[in-house]
Amino acid sequence: MPAANTVVRIWGTWACAAALSVAAQAQTACKVLTPTLQLSFQGECLNGLAHGQGQAQGQDRYQGQFVAGQPQGQGVYQFADGRRFEGAFVAGRISGPARFFYANGDSLEGEFRDNKLAGVGRLQRSGQPAVNVQLAADGRLQLAGAAAAPQPAQPPAPPQGAGVGWQAQLDFQDLFPSYLFATATRKQPQPAAAGARALAGTLSRGDFLAPLAEGASSRYVGSHANVSYLGDAWGLIGIRYRATQPGQKVRLRIEADEITEPTDTEFALGAAGDYALYPKLRYRYERLREAQQPRPVHVRWQLWVNGQPAGQQERTTQLRGLQDAPIFIKGQRGTEVMGWVFAAYVTEEAPWIDEFLKQAFAGHRSGPFGYQGGPEGVDEQIAIVYEALQKRGFKYSSITGNSSEIEHVGSQAVRLPSQAMKTAQANCVDGSVLIASVLRRIGIETFIVLGPGHAMLGYLRKPEAKLENLAVLETTMLGTHPFAKASSAGLATFQKWMKEVPDTDPRFQLVNVGAQRRQGVMPIPL
User: Fold this and answer.
1) What is the pTM of this model?
2) What is the pLDDT of residue 427?
3) What whole-number distance in Å separates Cα of residue 27 and Cα of residue 99?
C-alpha cells in the first residue's frame, strides 16, 4: 500500500517486451472523492481517504485541507482555465468566507453557501471601483439593491462542475487526430463483453465502457453521478453546465483554429441540474491528416442561454501527431483501455497493397484466394505475405514512445502501414496492423491481440468467428524467424494469457478489426 504522501501516476504502452506498468492499473490507496481531482494525491490519509493537509490534481487542482476524501476547511481550488476559489470548503463545496478570482483578474469576495454567493458580495473589476453585488433569482449577479447589473465576463463556476456557470472541457487534454478519425463515424458505445473465455463464439471482447444512459456521467473523465450527458458519444471537446431552471435552451459554439469549422449546436435541457454537453464538431479532416508532429491549437467556447450571451472561454491545447494513438485513460471507473483505436491504423484500402501482393505471389500457383482453400490455404497465404515482408529486410523496432505525456492519458506511437513499408521497421503493434491490412485486403478476418505489455496478430483460419479457428502470429519475429516459428510462438503466448491473465484485466483484448469496421471505426485515410 502506498504511503500517505505517495503520488500515484498512470503510464505505459504495448512495449512489445514488458508488461504495462503496474501504476497504469493502480488505484491510489488514498482516494479523493471529488471527481475532478482524482488523478493524483499527495498528503495525509485516514481509512483510505484523503484526510488532513494535502494536494490533489485531476482536471483541476486543489491544495488545502481534506476531510473524508473531500476538500473541507481552508484551501485553494484552481480550475483548468485559470479561475480559482480561495476560502472555506465544506464537503467539497465552497461554504464560508471565500474569494473567487476570474481568469481575467476580476474577483468576487463574500460569504458563500453551497457554492453560491450568500448575501452581499464585493465585485472588483480591473481598473474600476469595487461594487456590491448579490445573487439574483436566475443565478446571475446583480448590483445589490438593484434590479439588474452588467454581468462579469465569466460567472463563477464552483468545484465539481456544479453551482453557477459553466466550464470548458477537454477530456483528453490534448487532441489526437487518430482518435478523431477512429470515432468520426463510430456508433454509440456498447456494453462490455465478457472475458476471452466467455466469448460465446463471437471473438469480440467489446469496449470496456458502460453504455450511455439518462443520468450517466461523461464516459471518460466523469463528474457527479447525476450529470446528464448530451451530444456526441465520442466527443472530446464540450462543457459542463448547471441548469438552474428546467427547460433551458442552450446554444454552444466551439471552434479550434483551422482544424474545425465553427460549430453551433442547440441543446434543449430538461430538469434543472448538471449537464455534460458535447457537440458533434465539424472537423476539417484533411488538416488532421497533415498533422505529422505536435503543435499548439487554440480552442474557443461561446455559450448562449435562452438567447442571452452567457460568456466565452478560451484555451490553448496541443494537437498531437497522427502517429500518436491514445490507448488508455484513467477516468471515474478506473483505467479504461482503448485498444480499438488500433483498428484505425489497419488500412486495407491502401494503394500499395495491390503491388505488394502481385510481387509476393509471383511464382506461386495462384494469387490470393481468401478462404477458398480451407484452413491450410489460409496459412499458406499468410506465410507468403510474411516471407515477402522478410525479403524486404524488415527489422524489429522497439520505438513506442511519443514526444508528449499527459498524466491521465496514455498514448503510443504507431506507424501507419505505408510508413512501415518505407522504413522496413516495425514494433509489435506496427507489425500487427501492417499484416492485418494486407490480410483484410485478401478477405481474411483479422484481430489485434492485446495482452500485458504486448500485441500480436490474430486471424481466422475459417470464416466462422470461433475461438477454435483463431491463429496468432508473433510479428516481432518478422526479421529473425520463419513463419512456422512465429506462428507457434504467437499461439503459445496467447494460450499463456488465456491461462494466467484474468478476464477482468482490460489489457487482454481481442480487437476484431471487422467488427470495428461494422461499428463505424474506419481506416485513417492516406
Assistant:
1) 0.69
2) 92
3) 33
